[in-house]
Amino acid sequence: MKLNKILAMLLALVMVLSLAACGKEEESADGRILNVHVTAAIGSIDPALTSAGDDFEVIGTMVEGLFQCDASGAAIPGMAETYEKSPDGMTWTFYLRDAKWSNGAAVTADDFVFAWQRAMALPAEYASLFETAGIKNASAIYAGEMDATELGVYAKDEKTLVVEFDVPCAFFDTLMFFPVFYPMNRAFVEECGDLYGSAPEYYLSNGPFVLTEYTPAATEFKMAKNENYYDADAVALAGLTYKVILDSQQAYNAYQAGELDVCVLSSELADLLKDDAEFLATESGYLWYMSPNVSKGGAMANLNIRKAIGMAFDKEAICNNILRNGSFPADFCVPVGLATGPDGKDYRESSGLTYNEYNVDEAKALWAAGLAELGTDSVELTLIFDDEESIKLVAEFIQQELQTNLEGLSITLQPYPKKQRSDLMKAHDYDIGLCRWGPDYADPLTYMDLWTDGYTHNYGAWHSDAYMEILNKIKTVEFALDAEARWDLIKQAEQIIADESVILPVYQNANASLIKPDITGIEFHAVGLNRVYKNVKVG
After folding, report:
1. Nearest-angstrom CA–CA distance, 63 and 182
2. pLDDT for residue 227
3. From CA 349, how far away is CA 365, in angstroms rounded?
4. Pair type for strands 80-85 and 409-416
5. Which pLDDT score is estimated for 203?
6. Cβ atoms within 10 A of the Cβ of 256, count?
7. CA-CA distance, 112 to 83, in Å (whole number)?
8. Do residues 197 and 182 lie in contact, with contact meaning Cβ atoms separated by under 8 Å?
9. ∠ at Cα 329 (74, 361), nearest 5°?
10. Helix, coil or strand: residue 336
11. What is the sign, positive or negative, of the torsion defined by CA atoms of 521, 527, 530, 534?
């Protein structure tokens, strides 16, 4: 009997403890789990091993760099609580805040030194950005002439990071949004080895959220609020669940069923739902354009032919009748909303330059002049593009317009998987390609660099001595420190691109989404991270 009383007391105690535990579990689960749609599988969450926008978003949800961006896209302190620049702009010193990794280790200056040197040594997909930033010895390291340990970055002490430059960088703060510049804990990464980033136990966070469920190429993975984050009090969400759904109708059905809070829409669904109260179209920095292969000779090397093709198709019809997601025609090579100049205006407003505007009569005259210069009455071209439904529709429309408006032009359409299309264009093995570019940082140079000698994405291998002279000037100390003079040089460079019809702009992309009405505070950005969830509120 006595034993039974003891067992009963123990059982009661267990029940009390269980209820207490349940209460704690419910308390820790307060807040909303945000269910987010992504349209492609995540390739990698290693900042050095990816070049995909969705991957960057996921990484940026968990890891924070020296700067983060506010809702307007401006740089604000992240891991760097304060910083100072030398008068000549050749040295930046960052003083790190007291912050921790999700395993409790302190975030130190060496975390940045290690991550940056590792990115250069691999090299990372975007290792070239260290050269773009003008960091000391980055060019020589990228060229294989120096070791990555010679990069101009060092830890003065545990909380002081020093970055030295070969040339000052006018947009260095916005470059820090880019994941290749994020910190990595040296001891942890070296211990993980090749397993780093393959599962939650092989990943650390110093940002708002921490990985809880993940496998590479998973169709669903989860994050929880990072209680070790220095600004955890500002994070209202309990966590995030990312759901990879390739089919847009399936994603919409999941949204309607309450399984998604944020749903990315195809152009067809965007058109149907554009008047819905939960519909949102956001401007993207992605510029879609056709790249003529001028290096191949023949028709694409002829300026009048290039100009005629760029003017002979209706961009408004593409945006209004095919895309229907808020995208708008582009008659420029640097997008709207990319960067603000020293005059306080958006670069597009400041420049005011347009070219290749839709004009069939002028296109026909240019076409006739080009054919005469080539000594022919017909031209055959192959247009290559990514094998995606909306892009295929755009390509088919362009084909029809050009063949109708430019007598003697025959265009063969050739879709490829994105990587194969990209590889063909990088090898200059094509006639004309329909492609896009998204900005790596908030400065026109992220586009202007595309058409410089030897650059991987100078697909047509176009060259201009005058253009290279201007681009080289822009990157000198003199112009890095003179914002107005630098802006004027950029405008001169854009004028050359327009005069030479180096690319034939088509449209600037917009993204259409559905968002549940009780969700506010998702930040959409044209540069760096597509979507930021730190400041999301519910209700």
Report:
1. 7
2. 95
3. 30
4. unpaired
5. 97
6. 11
7. 15
8. no
9. 145
10. coil
11. negative
User: d(Cα 208, Cα 232) in Å, to the nearest integer?
Assistant: 7
Q: Are the C-beta atoms of 96 and 202 separated by less than 8 Å?
A: no
The pLDDT value given to residue 30: 55
Separation of first and last alpha carbons in the chain: 55
Q: And the tokens for 413?
A: 């359409």
**Tokens matching residue 423:** 């590889």
d(CA 250, CA 131): 42
CA distance 109 to 302: 53
Two tokens at 138?
């980055």
Q: What is the DSSP string of 58-91?
A: HHHHH---SEEE-TTS-EEESSEEEEEE-TTSSE
**Length of the chain measured in residues:** 539
Please tell me the CATH superfamily of domain 284-511, with its number. Dipeptide-binding Protein; Domain 3 (3.10.105.10)
Q: Are 244 and 38 in contact (CB under 8 A)?
A: yes
Residue 179 DSSP label = G
- Name the nearest CA neighbour of 214 among 232, 240, 234, 190: 240
CA distances from 143 to 123, 137, 139, 148, 504 (A): 11, 10, 6, 11, 31
Low-confidence residues in the chain, pLDDT < 50: 1-29
Look at residue 13 and give its three-state secondary structure: helix
pLDDT of 11 = 36
Pick the CATH number of 33-240+516-538 from 3.40.109.10, 3.40.50.20, 3.40.605.10, 3.90.76.10: 3.90.76.10
Cα(281)–Cα(18) distance, integer angstroms: 47
pLDDT for res 365: 98
Residue 343: DSSP 8-state: T
Instruction: Show me where the domains of the chain are located.
Output: 33-240+516-538, 284-511
**Is the pTM above the cut of 0.85?**
no
For residue 521, give every residue at least 6 positions away whose Cβ sits within 8 Å of its Cβ, in sequence order, or none: 533, 535, 536, 537
SS3 110: helix
Cα–Cα distance for residue pair 160/69, rounded to 1 Å: 21
CA distances from 14 to 3, 17, 28, 30, 108 (A): 16, 5, 21, 24, 43
- The answer to whether the CB of 475 falls within 8 A of the CB of 134 is yes
